[in-house]
């Protein structure tokens, strides 16, 4: 099982042992479980600012977010338990043994097995064969030089680069030099190999900062693939044309695995030489996972409705479905249900904190809220405005209940990092709120120092809570060392978010944003600044990949969580802020197609 164990914070707690030590003041502990039903104390009055004077009231940075698109929809979805059991039985009893035999067959050489692994990854079923895949790739990587020397097929070499790198093996990209001509450029004749070009395009997204050849491959393949759209060679194959469009729209490394798999299953279904067993397995697995996810979403919708923050704090973004969908990028495998549950809840509450600091609270109120977070004691909150108490208590109680649930498993210390991350998040929000209320535009470097702390690394930290099979000390020491991978994750999100939200934030008078800071400091136009910030973001993507391939301080399952955190950024923040305004982009369409419509068998 790809689960890991983390430790954060409290010293002198024996490793892998349960403990009665609590992260919360004893007087505030209740006998909760992860059902997280709110206590009566949560039912405070709705937001009504009576503490502020007229000047403070006029300083509220109201954002007026759109309401939820989904409401209680998923509570009304009926699930057939018998269908769920049937899917599970057929997968375990019929499909997995057949595919395992295919994978381990002695008739297949290393390259044939690697191509099969690539197909399993594309179909979303590779996770069923983690042990077998690691064994195959480990053996193949030890013979890599021989495998490369004997292979001159563009598609196969590109597949090898992608499979090895996504599994954490640093296959050199210099194998691509064989596809260059005497002028040092990729041979134009390669453009005739459509499938090879597609695969090279995908592999080229897995480059590191020093690998210029990957940038060259990316430019070369994108140019030729774009020119193929509408070409008669592709038009004669509509499913291949759609596959090219989907790939160009968003490469695998910048997309969620479940979306890639859903699109590829439709493509593979139209391939004349498809394997019926693999296709059926992929469809069964998708529908099985879909039922699993809907049940989780029903439970989370119920929790969110009972917490009732959307009515108590009407200024917040009510986005439980969008948040849950995003957690599927960290771990989509059914066995990580508890992880998705925890990450969704903490991300929703981090959103509440963000919206309170950024889109409603006056500066004194935000200051009092963050002071409460830093003290982490409910006893100090009685004099606060009622809505500030609601915010703090919701976060406090939820983390308390998570800690109560995880303590018997020896996981209290991993919950501590989530608490610390929430505190760090609050401190950064306060610093940015001070700039915003004063209409101050800091330097780009000053802004990024704090803005990078309001980004993605806390989501990685949340995901560590349920990972039980990796050394906790290693994970703790690595995370607390502020590794380059975390900095790069933060950079990708922060820059992409600031670019796409620029117009709306400026219209609210929120001038302390990355794009505006860069424009003012360097005296450049918006278009020039966007270009520079995108370059920075692209370099951060390369750093993420480099750190994923070279980090040895923690095991691969931890690094996979971190790698995956960056993958939904392009979906949520490329063309618009689809988290804040999901009704105006593709996110609603993607969620609908995924949760509402099963794949016909």
Automatic annotation (TrEMBL):
Record-annotated Terpene synthase N-terminal domain positions: 69-248
Record-level GO BP terms: diterpenoid biosynthetic process
UniProt name for this protein: Isoprenoid synthase domain superfamily
Alphabetized Pfam families for the sequence: Terpene_synth, Terpene_synth_C
Keyword flag Manganese: yes
Record GO terms (molecular function): magnesium ion binding; terpene synthase activity
Origin species: Arabidopsis suecica (Swedish thale-cress)
Keywords (A to Z) from UniProt: Lyase, Magnesium, Manganese, Metal-binding
Signal peptide stretch: none
Start and end residues of each Terpene synthase metal-binding domain: 305-542
Names of required cofactors: Mn(2+); Mg(2+)
């Amino acid at each position: 099982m790809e689960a890991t164990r983390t430790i954060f914070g409290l010293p002198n707690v024996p490793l892998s042992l349960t403990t009665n030590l609590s992260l919360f003041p004893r007087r505030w502990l209740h006998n909760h479980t992860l059902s997280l039903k709110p206590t009566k104390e949560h039912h405070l009055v709705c937001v009504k600012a009576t503490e502020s004077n007229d000047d403070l009231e006029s300083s509220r940075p109201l954002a007026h977010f759109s309401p939820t698109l989904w409401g209680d929809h998923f509570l009304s979805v009926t699930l057939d338990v018998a269908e769920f059991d049937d899917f599970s039985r057929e997968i375990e009893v019929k499909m997995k043994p057949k595919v395992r035999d295919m994978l381990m067959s002695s008739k297949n050489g290393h390259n044939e097995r690697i191509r099969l692994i690539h197909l399993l990854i594309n179909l979303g079923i590779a996770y069923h064969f983690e042990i077998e895949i690691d064994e195959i790739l480990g053996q193949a990587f030890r013979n890599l030089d021989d495998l490369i020397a004997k292979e001159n097929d563009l598609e196969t070499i590109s597949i090898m680069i992608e499979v090895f790198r996504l599994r954490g093996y640093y296959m050199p990209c210099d194998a691509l030099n064989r596809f260059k001509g005497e002028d040092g450029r990729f041979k134009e004749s390669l453009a005739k190999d459509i499938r090879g070009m597609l695969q090279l395009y995908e592999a080229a997204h897995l480059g590191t900062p020093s690998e210029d050849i990957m940038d060259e491959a990316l430019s070369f393949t994108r140019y030729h693939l774009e020119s193929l759209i509408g070409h008669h060679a592709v038009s004669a194959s509509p499913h291949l044309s759609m596959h090219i469009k989907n790939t160009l729209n968003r490469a695998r490394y910048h997309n969620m695995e479940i979306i890639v798999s859903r699109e590829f299953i439709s493509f593979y279904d139209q391939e004349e030489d498809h394997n019926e067993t693999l296709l059926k397995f992929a469809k069964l697995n998708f529908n099985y996972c879909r039922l699993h996810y809907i049940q989780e979403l029903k439970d989370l919708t119920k929790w969110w409705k009972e917490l009732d923050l959307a009515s108590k704090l009407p200024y917040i973004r009510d986005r439980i479905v969008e948040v849950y969908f995003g957690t599927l990028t960290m771990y989509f495998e059914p066995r990580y249900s508890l992880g998705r549950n925890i990450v969704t809840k903490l991300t929703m509450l981090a959103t509440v904190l963000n919206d309170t600091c950024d889109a409603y609270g006056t500066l004194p109120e935000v200051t009092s809220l963050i002071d409460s977070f830093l003290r982490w004691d409910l006893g100090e909150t009685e004099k606060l405005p009622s809505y500030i108490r609601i915010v703090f208590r919701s976060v406090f109680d939820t983390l308390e209940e998570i800690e109560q649930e995880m303590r018997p498993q020896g996981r209290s210390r991993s919950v501590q990092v989530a608490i610390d991350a929430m505190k760090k998040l609050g401190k950064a929000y306060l610093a940015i709120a001070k700039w915003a209320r004063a209409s101050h535009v800091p330097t780009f470097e000053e802004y990024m120092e704090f803005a990078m702390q309001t980004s993605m690394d806390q989501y990685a930290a949340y995901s560590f809570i349920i990972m039980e099979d990796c050394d906790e000390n290693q994970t703790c020491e690595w995370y607390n060392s502020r590794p380059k991978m975390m900095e790069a994750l933060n950079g990708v999100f922060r820059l992409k978010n600031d670019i796409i939200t620029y117009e709306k934030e400026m219209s609210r008078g929120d001038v302390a944003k990355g794009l505006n800071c860069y424009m003012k400091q360097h005296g450049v136009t918006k278009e020039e600044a966007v270009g520079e910030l995108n370059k920075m973001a692209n370099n951060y993507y390369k750093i993420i990949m480099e750190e994923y391939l070279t980090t040895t301080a923690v095991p691969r399952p931890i690094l996979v969580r971190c790698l995956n955190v960056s993958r939904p950024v392009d979906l949520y923040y490329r063309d618009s802020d689809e988290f804040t305004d999901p009704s105006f982009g593709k996110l609603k369409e993607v969620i609908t197609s995924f949760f509402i419509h099963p794949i016909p068998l």
